[in-house]
Amino acid sequence: MNFKNVTVYQIYPKSFYDGNNDGIGDLPGITRKLDYIRGLGADYIWITPFFRSPQRDNGYDISDYRQIEPMYGTMADFDALIKKAESLGIGVMLDMVFNHTSTEHEWFQKALKGDPRYLDYYIFRDGSPDEPPTNWQSKFGGSAWEYVPHLKKWYLHLFDKTQADLNWENPEVRGQLKDVIRFWKSRGVKGFRFDVINLISKPAVLENDLTGDGRRFYTDGPKVHEYLKELHREAGLDDVLTVGEMSSTSLENCIGYTSPREKELNMSFSFHHLKVDYRNGDKWELQPVDYRKLKDILETWQLGMQTHGGWNALFWCNHDQPRTVSRFGDDGAYWKESAKMLATLMYLMRGTPYIYQGEELGMKNAGFDSVGQYRDVESRNYYNILTQKGLSDKDALEILSQRSRDNGRTPMQWTDSRYAGFSENEPWIGLSEDSKGICAERQQNEKDSVFAYFKSLIELRKNEPLIGEGNIEFLYSEREDIFCYRRSLGNREMIVLCNLTPETVYGDFAKLLTGMSGRLGNYPDISVQTDGRLRPYEAVVYQYKAAF
Ligand code: GLC
Ligand code: CA
C-alpha cells in the first residue's frame, strides 16, 4: 500500500456540487466533478458521510451504515461514482463513524424498546433522573448523558444527544462494524477515514472527572490499540488506505496507531496545531495565532513520527475548521501569497497531504453576521451557551464568525454565476462572502492562481521521491517569523523556506541556498536576494539544479 506519495482531496458532499438542483450537493454532483479533481492531481477522494442519517450533525449521525441518504442519491449513483473514479485512477475513501450511531439507528431503537441484546450495543447506566452517572461534558456543549425515562437509564453521547456512543466492549458490536467495512470494500472502496476513532474505548468503570470534562478517561482509552489491531486484521485493512481522526490525542499514541509494525492504521489526523489560536485551550475564546507554538507543535510531531516510524496526515483544515487563509494567513492584501505559502509549508513535509475542497482556491471564511445563517449544531449550541454566559449578541457572533465549522461548509465556488455555479437553486447554506471573487473556473485558466500553485505542489510531490520518502530536519527553529526545513534522501536535498509574516524578513538565506536554484515559489520570480530578503509571506523551494 503506497500512501507516502499520494495526495487526498476531501469532499463534503452537501456543499460540493449539486447534480439535481435541489440546493444540496450529491453523489452525481461529485461524479461530474471528478475530472476537476484529476486535473488538480489528487489520487484519492475522501467523502464525508452520505449514509442514511437524520442529519442532525450533517451525516455524522448515521442511522444505517449500508444505505445512502436519498438527498445524496442512490446506490446506483454510488456505483457510477466508483466506476468513473476508477477510470480516472482516483481511489474513493469513505468516512466510518464508528464511535456512535444516530439514535434513529435500528440498534438504538431496539435498545429503547428495552431489548437487552441492543441495550448492550450502547453505554447505558442506571440512575435517577436528576443526576447523570458522571459529570462528563459533550463536545458539542452540555452533559454527555441523556436520560430515558421509561428505561430509567442514561446513555452516553460524547457528541450531540442524538449521537449515542457504541459499546466497543461488546464483541457483537465490533463484528457489526467489521461487516460494514467489508460491505463497502466489496463495492470498490479503496480507503477509510475513521471518525474520532481514538474515543472508542471507554474504561470499565466510569467516574466523575474532578479536573476536566471527562476526556482523559476515554481519549486514547484502555483498549483502543487492541481494537484497532483487531479491526485491521479481521476487516481486511491491509490493501486500503486508512486514516484515523484522533481527538485530543498524544504523539506517543499516534506513533502506535500508525507505525507499520503495529498494523493499526496508515496515518492519523491530530489537531494540536489547530488549537494555537484558542485561549487556554478554549475554542470559543479568541486569541491571535501563536506562531511560535504552531512551529513547535509541527516540528515536534514531524520529528517524533520520523524517529519512531509513524506517519502524519498533513492538513490545515477540513469540514470542522475555519478556512486556512483567513486563519493563518492574510485574506486581504496578501491573500494569494499567503494561501500559497501555507500550502508550501504544510504539504512538503513528511506525511500525506489532505486538501479540503476550496482550499486549492484559497476560499475564505463565510463572513456570516447573523445567527440565522448558521446551520451547524455545534455553532448553534455554542451561540446559546455564549449568550447565556452574558456575552452580547455581537461578541458571540464575532466568535462564531472566526470559529464556526460552517466557515468551511459554504458551497464550493465553481463559477462566477449565481450561487457560484454550485446549484441553480438556493443552497442549503449561504455562500461565503468571497464567492464573487474566487472560483474554480477562473483559477483553472490563470497561470499564477492558487489552484495552479496547488497543482504544481502536488506534481512536485509526485515527481520528487524525497518528499514522500525522505528525511526532514528543521532549520531556524528559534525564529518565529520563518518556517524552514530540509528534506533529504540519499544525496538529494530540498530546502523549503517560508516567511510567516506580512513583513519583509532577512536572514543568511543566500548562504543556506548556495549552489541551489529555485524550483517553486509564490512570487512570479523565485529568487532569494543576495541580501537574504524574503518578501511578505514569500515561500520558496530550492534544490540543486542537477536534481530537477
Ligand atoms: C468528527 C467529525 C465531525 C463530527 C464529529 C462527531 O470530529 O469530523 O464533523 O461532528 O466527529 O461525529
Ligand atoms: Ca442535490
Brief sketch in words of this structure:
The protein has 548 residues and is an alpha/beta fold. The protein folds into three domains: 8-101 and 169-457, TIM Barrel; 106-164, Oligo-1,6-glucosidase, domain 2; 471-547, Golgi alpha-mannosidase II (Immunoglobulin-like), CATH 2.60.40. It is built from 18 helices and 24 strands.
Describe this structure in words.
By secondary structure, the chain is an alpha/beta fold. Strand 19 and strand 20 form a beta hairpin. The protein has 18 helices and 24 strands. An 8-stranded parallel sheet has the order 13-12-11-5-2-1-17-16. It has a 5-stranded antiparallel sheet with strand order 18-19-20-24-22. The chain has a 3-stranded antiparallel sheet with strand order 7-9-8, with no helix packed on it. It has 3 domains: 8-101 and 169-457, Glycosidases (TIM Barrel), CATH 3.20.20.80; 106-164, Oligo-1,6-glucosidase, Domain 2 (Oligo-1,6-glucosidase, domain 2), CATH 3.90.400; 471-547, Golgi alpha-mannosidase II (Immunoglobulin-like, Sandwich). Residues 18-20, 22, 24, 26 line the site of calcium ion (CA).
Which characteristics define this entry?
binds alpha-D-glucopyranose, Oligo-1,6-glucosidase, domain 2, TIM Barrel, Immunoglobulin-like, about 550 residues, binds calcium ion, alpha/beta, 24 strands, 3 domains
Give the arrangement of secondary structure elements:
Blueprint: E1 8-11, H1 27-32, H2 34-40, E2 44-47, E3 51-52, E4 64-68, H3 75-88, E5 91-96, E6 100-102, H4 106-112, H5 116-119, E7 124-126, E8 145-148, E9 153-156, E10 163-165, H6 171-186, E11 191-194, H7 215-218, H8 224-235, E12 241-245, H9 251-258, E13 267-269, E14 278-279, E15 282-286, H10 291-308, E16 313-314, H11 324-328, H12 335-347, E17 352-356, H13 377-388, H14 393-403, H15 440-444, H16 450-463, H17 465-469, E18 471-475, E19 482-489, E20 492-499, E21 505-506, H18 509-512, E22 516-521, E23 533-534, E24 539-544
Parallel strand pairs: 1-2, 1-17, 2-5, 5-11, 11-12, 12-13, 16-17
Antiparallel strand pairs: 3-4, 6-10, 7-9, 8-9, 14-15, 18-19, 19-20, 20-24, 21-23, 22-24
Helix pairs in contact: 6-8, 9-10, 12-16, 13-14
The chain binds alpha-D-glucopyranose and calcium ion.
The site of alpha-D-glucopyranose (GLC) has 9 residues, from loops.
